[in-house]
Amino acid sequence: MKFNDAIVGLVVALLGAAVIAQAGYFPKARHIPYGPGFLPTILGVGLAICGVLLIVRGISERRTQPLLKLGEWSRSPRHVFGFALVLVCLAFYALFADDIGHFACSVLILLVLIGHLTGRWLRALWISILASIAIQFFFVDLLLVPLPWGVLEPYSGWFVWR
Fold first, then answer.
1. Same domain, yes or no, for 101 and 57?
2. Domain containing 96: what range?
3. In terms of pTM, does the model score above 0.70?
4. Which of residues 23, 51, 69 is at a domain's end?
5. 3-state SS, one letter per residue, for the chain
6. pLDDT (tens digit, 9 = 90+) per residue, 75-125?
């Protein structure tokens, strides 16, 4: 799947504008002319400039480049379903990770995705459990990132190896 540069440029320019707008809410420093919003503002301006350049390029190449060019995979119902399944899994995690917990969401998402890709559901179950334990250990114990426990909160002490 390939988008025209004008579409990608529009997304990048909007992202840059959002970064600039958000940086405006950062607190101002009293004794220096710049504060914590200075670097994000510079990055946002850079994104916006790159986005505008992409828009100009995309418009100039409009005759030779369509707005959207789908690949061969888009003709396969199995691949389209897999693409949609990934989007549904991302939305599921975003909506339910706080309530269900990261570990349970990770097991469910990996089970569904690996099971769909391989067709071996029992192997997918074991891989999803072991991978979720490894991910939990890596983020919680090594990187010290607090992940939501959700329904497993009473058992969270079992999974902390510090």
1. no
2. 73-159
3. no
4. 69
5. CEECHHHHHHHHHHHHHHHHHHHCCCCCCCCCCCCCCHHHHHHHHHHHHHHHHHHHHHHHCCCCCCCEECCHHHHCHHHHHHHHHHHHHHHHHHHHHHHHCHHHHHHHHHHHHHHHHHCCHHHHHHHHHHHHHHHHHHHHHHCCCCCCCHHHHHHHHHHCCC
6. 889 889 999 999 999 999 999 999 999 999 999 999 999 999 999 999 999
